[in-house]
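Practice problem: predict the structure.
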Amino acid sequence: MKKAWSRLEGASQDPAITLLVLFPLALVHLTGRGAVPSAAYSLVENVLLAFGGGSTLVLGMLLFFAALWALGRIHSLALPWRAGAVFSILEGILWGILLHPALAWLTSALSDGRSLSWGQRDDLGGSLALAAGAGLYEELLFRAFLFGWVFTAIKFLLRLFGWGNAASGPAWVVGLLVSSCLFSLAHGWGDPSQLDAPVLLFRFLAGVLLGLLYSWRGLAVVAYAHASYNALILL
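Answer:
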């Protein structure tokens, strides 16, 4: 039984399973992409627009081939993809539910009467699209890319100065703090009121919590945790 559980948990963090698990978030967000873009999504959309009208077709082809790769890997490794995917989604939703009271407490502690998060939306589809888009694109940008890139770069530099295997710990801390700072600052892009100290601190601490979860449980879990947390505060 223990071996089966370990295999299921490992499959849920496999890159092929992660890719398939993230597809539903992308589809949900695309249903309301024009009305509720997040900062990270707007960046992606601007990049696509810069490449012209054919960029959507290219993106679709990339997703198609990525899906083929994922399915091929799942088949070759005999990964329990159904159980692994469900495991990741359910775990992510659970973490999102647990994050809600923690971040609500931070909001109460840091707020001076202003809202430190998104306001309520009346449109169910738009709220779900916004929640899914933030969960997917912000985690891809700030955790998978920035956190990972900073960690790798700092570890490389420290090893050049003779830190050896001891470089991983400090590099991880720097990656966590830098990605959390940028996560906080990005949410204030275009809205000076979101650059006030209490708001920045709240989003920085939220970024730290999400970064810890990403390091421990992986991209798929943290993306669904972020999306489900956003859904709880928007619906």
